[in-house]
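Need a sequence for this fold. Nothing fancy.
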């Protein structure tokens, strides 16, 4: 089975979780590509069996330009201890998801990272991600997942292990989607002559 994981990350937590989900999937013999959202194309879900999308929770939901600016400013403060991922200032998932090519029922899953605590207080970006995936014609095959960070913005080994386990569960529950089509369907018309 082939999977693509697309993530948005400013401080690296969501990136680390994306890598852990990929490891869990590879343990189950999946062929997985992990892409930061600035490198993901609108078609990147089109030739895989499962598209997994994850991002950080900002002000209860997906990052916006203004919340990304706040995050950049917070990282620039002396002693913040925060370092920014490449292209952290965006565009991010909020801009990429509406342009994603139609999934036509393809399989997808969504996750986020956020602070510890009840979702009533923290929000959860993964709900917004799953909603946007459905709007693009994807079938979300597992409940959304949150992986939490401490007040010091640290991911624990326990959360990373949970992500790995979730990746393995995704690999188990996702069936072939694109690749059970006849091979002829995958060959562009102009390549047939
Ligand atoms: C501007 C900003 C707003 C945030 N808002 C929330 C929030 O509403 N709820 C929450 O649980 N965490 C919030 N967080 C914490 C992030 O979700 C958390 O640190 C996340 O792991 C960051 O992921 P990243 O390292 O991949 O950027 C916020 C962080 C920033 C910088």
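Here you go.
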């Amino acid at each position: 089975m082939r999977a693509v994981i697309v993530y948005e990350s400013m401080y690296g937590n969501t990136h680390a979780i994306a890598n852990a989900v990929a490891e869990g999937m590879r343990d189950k013999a999946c062929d997985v590509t992990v892409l930061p959202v600035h490198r993901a194309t609108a078609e990147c879900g089109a030739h895989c069996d499962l598209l997994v999308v994850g991002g950080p929770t900002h002000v209860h939901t997906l990052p916006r330009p203004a919340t990304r600016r706040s995050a950049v400013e917070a990282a620039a403060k002396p002693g913040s201890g925060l370092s920014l991922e490449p292209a952290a200032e965006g565009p991010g998932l909020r801009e990429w998801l509406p342009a994603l090519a139609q999934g036509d029922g393809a399989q997808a899953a969504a996750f986020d990272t956020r602070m510890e605590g009840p979702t009533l207080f923290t929000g959860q970006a993964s709900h917004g991600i799953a909603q946007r995936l459905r709007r693009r014609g994807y079938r979300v095959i597992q409940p959304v997942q949150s992986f939490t960070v401490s007040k010091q913005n640290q991911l624990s080994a326990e959360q990373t292990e949970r992500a790995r386990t979730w990746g393995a569960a995704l690999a188990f529950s996702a069936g072939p989607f694109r690749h059970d089509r006849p091979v002829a369907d995958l060959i562009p018309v102009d390549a047939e002559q």
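For context: Helices lie at 13-27, 65-76, 93-96, 119-122, 125-135, 157-173, 183-186.
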